[in-house]
Amino acid sequence: MTERKVEVITEPTEHSFEKVLGVPSGTTEMTQIVVKSKTDPHELYDKKDDEIEEDFLNIYDKALEMFERLMIEIDDVDQSKRSRLAEVANQTLNTALTAAKERRGLKEHIDVLSQKERAISKKASSGKITNNNLFVGSHAQLLDALAGKVEDEKIIDIEKTTDSDESDN
């Protein structure tokens, strides 16, 4: 889960026009929007996965910051420039969307790998044993072999089952 925090910071700063306009130095205020995202650690992520996700989050945050700045400035800009500014704001949202999709792809890939590992371990621990036996002979020879009546040296291994042991008694 991602926790997102948006801060609006207003700082006094010096502007180059303060001297020209006769305004006292350092009285210009600049508003800055800072977006900080923090994710909960994922148990399947290793150090590199966390680093990649942090990079995607950083891109996502910067795109949202730029979008917010552009939306503030769109009211103050000349009418002829508004459509271009709106287009650029839309492109920053597209950048944020792409970063979000890449984060989703990273998590999806890791989830698929963990699901495959679980399926393999479940299959390995299920205890099913497959025996492939080959018998070349007639039906009567098969029944004799199962009953243990055949003493042929070509037969490598004959195991009596509990059912045939009970029937012999």
Describe this structure in words.
This protein has 169 residues and is an alpha+beta fold. The protein has one domain. Helix content is 56%, strand content 14%. It is built from 5 helices and 2 strands. It has a two-stranded antiparallel ribbon. Helix 2 (47-73) runs antiparallel to helix 3 (79-125). It is rod-shaped. The two termini are 68 Å apart.
Overview in brief:
By secondary structure, this protein is α+β, with helices and mostly antiparallel strands.
The total tally of domains equals 1
Percent helix, as a range, is 55-70%
Look at the structure and give the mean pLDDT. 79
Counted beta strands = 2
Beta-strand residue fraction: 5-15%
Q: Can you tell me the overall shape?
A: rod-shaped
Spell out the helices and strands N to C. EHEHHHH
- What oligomeric state is this? single chain
Q: How many helices in DSSP terms?
A: 5
Strand order of the largest sheet: 1-2
Characterize the largest beta sheet: strand count, sense, and whether it forms a barrel.
2 strands, antiparallel
Radius of gyration (CA) equals 37 Å
Structural class: alpha+beta
N-C termini distance: 68 Å
Q: Show unreliable segments.
A: 164-169
